[in-house]
Each structure stands twice: as structure tokens, then as C-alpha cells.
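Session log. Operator J.P. requested a structure for one protein chain; no other inputs attached. Running the standard single-chain path with C-alpha cell output.
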Amino acid sequence: MSQSNKLYWDATYEIVLGLIDTHPGANLDAMGLQELYELIVALPDFADDPELANEGILTEILREWYEEINP
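Structure written below.
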């Protein structure tokens, strides 16, 4: 796998695409930030430091995910 396929916290849109692919039926209305965090760090291509996550990053990813599946 090339370096460009790795997921890092600043690639929020790419993380969202990975989440949509791996969890297509996720209930975002009921999802908490801890659950979201666990789903992200479990993504096969996730390569960043899990300790760098914060509420702002997780909230942004959740918002983008919601907007991507509810155009």
C-alpha cells in the first residue's frame, strides 16, 4: 500500500469515505464521539496517532459524514 492511501486526522473527507464504505448502515443520529473514534481508528488504512483525536476533529468528521449521506 502506498503512503498516499493512509488516513490521517487532517484528511477528514477521506476518513468519511472510509467510514461510509465500512459502515454503510451506521445510525449517525445515535452515534457518540467515542463510538466514532473507535470506528475511525479501526479503519484498515488509518495510520495517524490515535492520541491526536479531539472533540473538534471528531465533530467535524461526524458532520461531514452526515452531510455526505444526506445531500
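Operator note: The radius of gyration is 11 Å.
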